[in-house]
């Protein structure tokens, strides 16, 4: 596991697992339990075989999400405008809660990587801040 998270608005989420020996393992996520919000959307990202693939590069104004790397591994870069940190996600039952106003980038995907994302709201492009300069302006104005 990585060291502690130092950026604002992020923390690890650990799912309980039910291990069925040779028959596999179940990991469970429930609203307002392991997931600190009501899940309104789930999506997953796959076909990440290109080693140069980079996703994210944005922040959200109100959306909260929990990311799990349910297969393989990848690196999540986090930036709260003051602190930066890179987190390795490589366990299917340990995700990361991305709160609001957190610039994030996903890269260094293993070829078998599948990212599962549980989100607090439906897709809304107006919630995205897709320019880093706009992100710094946005959080600066709220101080
Ligand atoms: C995030 C990270 C972790 C939709 O139409 N509906 C959706 O629910 C999603 C997730 C995406 N899209 C469209 C919007 C874009 O035209 O799919 C296209 C690619 O989306 P984006 O460039 O935002 O993908 P990522 O992987 O950079 O970001 C995604 C989520 O969009 C984002 O909220 O935080 O995963």
Rg result: 15 Å
Taking pLDDT < 50 over at least 5 consecutive residues as the criterion, the unreliable ranges are none
Percent helix, as a range, is under 10%
Mean pLDDT metric: 96
> What sequence of helices (H) and strands (E) makes up the elements?
EEEEEEEEEEEEH
Could you describe the largest sheet, including whether it forms a barrel?
Answer: 5 strands, antiparallel
Strand content: 35-45%
Number of helices: 1
**Structural class label:** mainly beta
Bound molecules: dTDP-4-keto-6-deoxyglucose
Based on Cα principal axes, name the global outline: globular
Strand order of the largest sheet: 1-9-6-11-4
Number of strands: 12
Notable characteristics:
mainly beta; 7% helix; 43% strand; 143 residues; globular
Question: Outline of this structure?
Answer:
The chain is mainly beta and 143 residues long. The protein contains one helix and twelve strands; from the N terminus they run E-E-E-E-E-E-E-E-E-E-E-E-H.
How would you portray this structure in words?
The chain has about 140 residues and is mostly beta strands. Helices cover about 5% and strands about 45% of the residues. It has one helix and twelve strands, in the order ββββββββββββα. It is globular, with a radius of gyration of 15 Å. DTDP-4-keto-6-deoxyglucose binds next to β4, β5 and β6.
Q: Which helices and strands, and how do they pair?
A:
Layout: E1 10-14, E2 16-19, E3 25-28, E4 41-45, E5 55-60, E6 65-71, E7 74-79, E8 84-89, E9 94-98, E10 103-107, E11 114-119, E12 128-129, H1 132-141
């Amino acid at each position: 596991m990585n060291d502690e998270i130092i950026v604002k608005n992020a923390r690890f989420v650990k799912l309980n697992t039910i291990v069925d020996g040779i028959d596999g393992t179940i990991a469970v996520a429930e609203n307002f339990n392991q997931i600190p919000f009501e899940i309104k959307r789930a999506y997953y990202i796959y076909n990440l075989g290109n080693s140069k693939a980079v996703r994210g590069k944005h922040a959200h104004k109100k959306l909260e999400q929990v990311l799990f790397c349910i297969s393989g591994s990848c690196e999540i870069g986090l930036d709260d405008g003051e602190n930066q940190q890179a987190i390795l996600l490589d366990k299917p039952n340990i995700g990361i809660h991305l709160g609001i106003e957190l610039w994030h980038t996903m890269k260094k995907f293993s070829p078998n990587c599948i990212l599962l994302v549980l989100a607090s709201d439906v897709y809304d492009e107006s919630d995205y801040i897709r320019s880093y300069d706009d992100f710094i302006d946005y959080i600066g104005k709220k101080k």
